[in-house]
Amino acid sequence: MLGQSITRNSALLALFALVTALLITGTYLLTRDTIAQERRQAEQRALLEVVPRERHDNSMLDDTLPLPADTPGLGLREDRQLYIARQGDKAVAVIVPVLVRDGYSGDIELIVGVNRDGSIAGVRALNHRETPGLGDKIDLRKSDWILDFNGRSLDSPPPQRWGVKKDGGVFDQFTGATITPRAVVAGVLRALLFVESHRAIVFATPADKPATGDQA
Fold first, then answer.
1. Percent share of the chain, pLDDT over 70
2. Secondary structure (3-state) at 182
3. Which residues, 6+ apart, have CB-to-CB distance to 130 below 8 Å?
4. What is the spatial distance between Cα 162 and Cα 185, in angstroms, rounded to a whole number?
């Protein structure tokens, strides 16, 4: 009797596991297209905050260059893409993903828009776990601090002044929180330096654009 009971229970558990797996698989198959579309729309909204629609006539989501995870200077932990905004064939700006690994509470995911003239079009913090009320002021919904990057370049200020005021730089730190803004400023500077060193690639016209899997 005991053996029969164990066998029956094992069979019921196996059946339950199979049904659960089928339900999970079915739910995924039914919703994956919707999830992918919503993710694409959210990504597009973030890009348009940095380079508004009126500045370009292409789909930035479909005009990209690959950025391998080991791309120098960007701190990426996985392969990402650089997005290009164009008017006609002319690239007017690019948007670069940057992962800041030395935030106070962990990684900070940024996108940095850089205009063709080398000035910053905009910066947004997409994901972070910084302390509410302190480090989370990098989020535009909490503070306009991030807007101070707009129009900045490698000439304004020069690289040695790209820091918080506590370190002799030009950017404000937060009251009671210096680590977060210090890390973000450094990450934005790295994005500017990356674009400057790859200008011939990222601002190329489509006809001239190389296969840059190992160049960007």
1. 83
2. helix
3. 103, 104, 105, 108, 136, 138, 177, 180
4. 7
CA distance 193 to 198: 9
pLDDT one-digit tens code per residue, 128-164: 888 888 788 999 989 999 999 999 999 999 999 999 9
Question: Which pair of tokens denotes residue 92?
Answer: 């007017």
Of residues 104 and 193, more confidence is placed in 193
Arithmetic mean of pLDDT over the chain? 86
User: How many helical (H) and strand (E) elements, i.e. helices and strands, does the chain have?
Assistant: 3, 5
Q: How many CB atoms lie within 10 A of CB 170?
A: 15
Q: Residue 81: which of 62, 61, 65 has the closest Cα? A: 65
CA–CA gap between residue 120 and residue 132 (Å, rounded): 27
**Cα→Cα distances 54→49, 57, 146, 195, Å:** 11, 7, 22, 23
Distance (Å, rounded) from C-alpha 8 to C-alpha 98? 55
**Percent of the residues in the chain that have a pLDDT greater than 90, as a whole number:** 65
Contact 69, 79 (CB under 8 A): yes
Torsion angle defined by CA atoms of residues 69, 72, 76 and 80, in that order, rounded to the nearest 10 degrees:
-60
* Matching residue, tokens 């947004």: 124
What residue type is 43 in one-letter code? E
- The label of the residue with tokens 């006609």 reads 88
Looking at residue 130, what DSSP letter applies? P
Number of Cα atoms under 13 Å in the Cβ half of residue 10: 6
